[in-house]
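Protocol step 6 of 9: fold each sequence in the batch and record its structure tokens directly after the sequence line. For illustration, a two-sequence batch is reproduced in full.

Sequence one:
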Amino acid sequence: MHTLDSPRFASDALVRSAADQVAMLVGRDSTDFLRTVVDAAGGTLIESRARQVYQQPRGGAIASYDTKIRWGGGPVTSETMAACAGDLPPGVGVVENGGDRIAVWRFPHDPDLPGLASAYHAASVADLLTELDLGGGPVRLSVRAYRPRRRAVIEAIGPCGSVFVKAVRPDRVEELHNRHRLLVASGVPAPHSLGWNAQGLLVLQALPGRTLRDQIRSGDGPVPSGELILDLLDHLPTALTCAPRRSSWLDRVEHYAGIVGAIIPDEAQRTNGIAAAIRAESGVGPTVAVHGDFYESQILVRDATVCGLLDVDGAGAGDRLDDLGCLLGHLSVLAHLDRQRASAINSIGAGYLATFERTVDPADLRYRTAAVVVSLIAGPHRVQDQRWPVTTRRLVDLADRWLASARRARRRR
């Protein structure tokens, strides 16, 4: 196994803000500092491309990269690397960049997910499944998701079928296991937790069906009604409200507007104005049990029914407007990005809006949807889409239209 040491890389730039750090992690310097670290570990960086970049909740920025590396005289391998600036984790290679330091690591050696390396090792996963009485035999692994320093999901397929191994921070795994058990006991179709270990690995049941997003984009079948979506949320157990209240999309809207202004400065005034209006004019709902990140990729469907609810890490106490606005906002943005299916996606979203606004204030629902759209404006930049500047401006327009719709609904009260 190749390790990454801590070389020093000189630069004239002094990076001070998170926006500057984001630019550094995906700019020309990124190839230089990745190459420096790979060289120090005995490899040669052949190619690199930023896959995702975003600001860290604790400050600074983090990015992941698709790379091709030749180790020694061997063949070229495709690997994922990650780097962060600002809040640095211990135990990884650090590059000195002027007055700032950049931490760099290779997947699966994430400093905050100590179980990830085991989750990406077939023999270790087979041993884990045996320990949990989930069958033995060899397994085949596939990475389904990786968000550096936050979580990863590895699908393991073996003689007894498929399971998902989720790597999280060790201090969160038992709580997440208990949350899955609570939801399933309450009739929510979340994956059963089949067990966990102290490294932060949670083994989850594989559910049938496909995501609502895939169903919508395929166009080859009906989708669940708005009433079924509401029924799913109504089954979230009230015990979740005992947890600390989640921050709302409303609380974070000005933060996300600031990110937009940092990546496209000439849109800063308009985006900040939209966010300020949303924050000032919107009402809030009562505290209830919420999913916390409720959008079409988290909902599994089959035959126009809901058969699964994924990624319940953030489930807890919150505002129903957040879950409803999250789904509407994501569908609205999806329609904007998928031009061929835009009409069908907007039709589905309009149907959900008509159903949802019978249960909550129509104006507040639209304000919350606008807040979610603001949170998604920087998405094309985060995934380093080639057309992100054009798409970003169009998404600012979309948020503005939701704000105007909310104001019209408020006048009709």
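Sequence two, same batch, same settings:
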Amino acid sequence: MTDKRSVAERCSAAAKEYDSSKGAQGWRGPEAVFGLMYASVGSGDSLLDIGIGTGLGSVLFHKAGLLVHGMDLSREMLDVCREKNIAEELKVHDLTLDPYPYTTASLHHAVCIGVLNHFESLDLVFREVSRILKDNGIFGLVVVDRNPEEASSFDVEHAGSRHTMFRHCKAEISDLLGNHGFEFLRELEFTVPAHKAGSQPMRMKAYAVRRMKRIEPEN
């Protein structure tokens, strides 16, 4: 994963302008995930937003009546999210450290929409979501999609600095599902428009997966 301090500093500096900048970039991750999950969630269900930031990914779920819980590394991002009054609780936590601050089988659903491109390995996130979700809970996520011929890592420039991001292919996601007790529901591919002349649109993929029922130990 990229340097934690540099990620935190970028998030802090951009907190106030984050929502408007994402809109200008044509970011459609929240809509894609909400669309994939809508038929499987209900008003009054709890939702964990992993890397909630300013709450951009949870607004639609809040409007649909879900009870949003969120965690993020950036206190500044969480302050902006808190001002929107969309979350039941917000916690500061480094997403690279486990365990996440929630008890086992305590929440109905989870989303992780704008941060997995910073993770080279998604194993920790899937492991913790699997632990935290109730049986049959839905996990919605967005990754930068990767074709077999593409490298898993790539460099981007943002706010005058250069940092590494990561792509994840469907085969990798499928392995994670099998390893951590999930089953595939549906997916949607979309693109993020190029942010500067001469660059290519970024190909994204949203997934909705279900936490399978835990096998009870025999007496």
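Proceed to step 7 once all outputs are recorded. Observation for sequence two: The two ends are 43 Å apart (CA to CA).
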